[in-house]
Design a protein that fits this description.
The structure holds 2 protein chains of 2 kinds. By secondary structure, chain A is α/β, with parallel strands linked by helices. Chain A has one domain: Thiamin diphosphate (ThDP)-binding fold, Pyr/PP domains (Rossmann fold), CATH 3.40.50. Chain A contains 7 helices and 6 strands; from the N terminus they run H-E-H-E-H-E-H-E-H-E-H-E-H. In chain A, strands 2-1-3-4-6-5 form a 6-stranded parallel beta sheet, with helices on both faces. The longest helix of chain A has 16 residues, at 75-90. Chain B has 8 helices and 8 strands, in the order αβαβαβααβββαβαβα. Chain B has helices at residues 3-15, 25-33, 49-59, 71-74, 78-87, 118-125, 136-149, 173-198; strands at residues 18-21, 39-41, 65-70, 92-98, 101-102, 108-109, 129-133, 153-158. The longest helix of chain B has 26 residues, at 173-198. Chain B is globular and about 50 Å long. In chain B, 46% of the residues are buried. The chains are: A alpha/beta, B alpha/beta. The interface between A and B is medium-sized, with 32 and 36 residues.
């Protein structure tokens, strides 16, 4: 499977460096290595979800409990989580670090992913969620750290889009 | 059974727990009995109170977490019951007040009015302890038994479809949020102090 192990490791190590102690996730192809790394890490609480919106509630609970968390999801999972993002995280000013695999952009071969890819960034803009694309391995650690810093200073959700150039090795 | 009298009957135990409620009548009625800094009212995001309770319970296993849910809310997050069961936090008590209706928006019947059995759904999802209660004494017994068992429990309490005249209270949403967070942080440092003293 040509999902990049090296980039997944960079992302995982950056989450650890940022003090993340809980990740919620729903498997998708690009996230498999990240989820396995969380699974193999005895220090990490991994919560496997039935639907991504649950992750907003779980991260909010973790935040109140004093534990830093991250949500791993596909962009269609972000679409499924929007009500929770607005009516829990934004209403209550909860910092959320969302790592969203940006399927359906240039290079996408799966026809079923293409609509989500076309709307994800527009929706993040409409929701006023600060977001950046993660494309270069060299930027991963810095961007994840910066994203978390903003989430906590603003008390708001932020998103990093895990892009094809980072996650997929042709 | 009326929901208000059910909440009142267990209020002394709620005072000693970390409590998360759904929006609407449950939040307003608990506040009418007396707000405490360990009570958080999720005034929207229907369905997520149980998920929020799961996050708290997993991260703070030393604390008893009680979620006061409702039929309309949990019906929006039935998948979340499978997640609760999967991680089975022993310190989470999940109470669902089931009035078989969406009371705050006109009393339209929910699916529990036509036979859907939430305790059965919870059990089938893998929640190790689940029960349906209809009388106040049954409710308090089930509540006490759940705390004593120290295992994940869902109690579905059938209650009358009556509630307070209004749902907006004097407590601001963000005031509640920051107070709750600060309270948990202070509990954390108290726990650390205890550990330190023991160490």
């Amino acid at each position: 499977m040509p999902v990049s192990v090296a980039s997944s490791r960079l992302i995982y190590d950056a989450l650890k460096s940022a003090g993340v102690g809980l990740v919620s996730a729903l498997p998708e192809t690009w996230l498999v290595h990240l989820i396995r790394m969380a699974e193999d890490d005895p220090e990490m609480v991994l919560v496997r979800l039935a639907k991504e919106e649950e992750g907003v509630g779980i991260s909010t609970g973790a935040y109140f409990a004093g534990v830093k968390s991250a949500m791993l999801m596909q962009n269609h999972g972000f679409l499924a989580a929007i009500n929770g993002i607005v009516s829990c995280a934004q209403l209550y000013r909860i910092p959320l670090l969302m790592l969203i695999s940006q399927r359906g952009a240039f290079g996408e071969r799966d026809p079923w992913q293409t609509e989500g890819g076309a709307v994800t960034e527009h929706l993040l803009d409409a929701l006023r969620v600060p977001h950046e694309r993660l494309q270069a391995p060299g930027h991963v650690a810095h961007k994840i750290s910066q994203a978390q810093t903003l989430a906590y200073s603003a008390n708001r959700p932020v998103a990093l889009l895990l892009c094809r150039d980072l996650m997929w090795e042709e | 059974m009326r929901r208000l009298e059910a909440i009142q009957a267990v209020y002394p135990k709620l005072e000693r727990s970390i409590v998360v409620t759904i929006m609407g009548a449950v939040a307003a009625e608990l506040q009418s009995l007396g707000h405490r800094p360990n009570f958080f009212y999720l005034q929207h995001a229907m369905g997520l109170a149980s998920s929020l309770g799961l996050g708290l319970a997993l991260c703070r296993p030393e604390l008893q977490v009680v979620v006061l849910d409702g039929d309309g809310s949990i019906l929006m997050n039935l998948g979340g019951l499978t997640t609760l069961a999967r991680y089975r936090p022993k310190n989470l008590l999940h109470v669902v007040f089931d009035n078989e209706s969406l009371l705050s928006v006109g009393g339209f019947p929910t699916a529990t009015a036509t036979g859907s059995d939430l305790a059965g759904i919870a059990a089938a999802a893998g929640v190790p302890r689940s029960t349906t209660v209809r009388a106040l004494a049954e409710f308090t017994d089930a509540f006490d038994a759940a705390l004593a068992a120290h295992d994940l429990t869902t109690i579905v309490a059938k209650v009358e479809a009556t509630g307070p005249a209004g749902f907006v209270t004097d407590l601001g949403l963000l005031e509640n949020r920051f107070q709750f967070q600060r309270h948990l942080r202070e509990l954390n440092s108290e726990t650390s102090d205890v550990r330190h003293q023991r160490g």
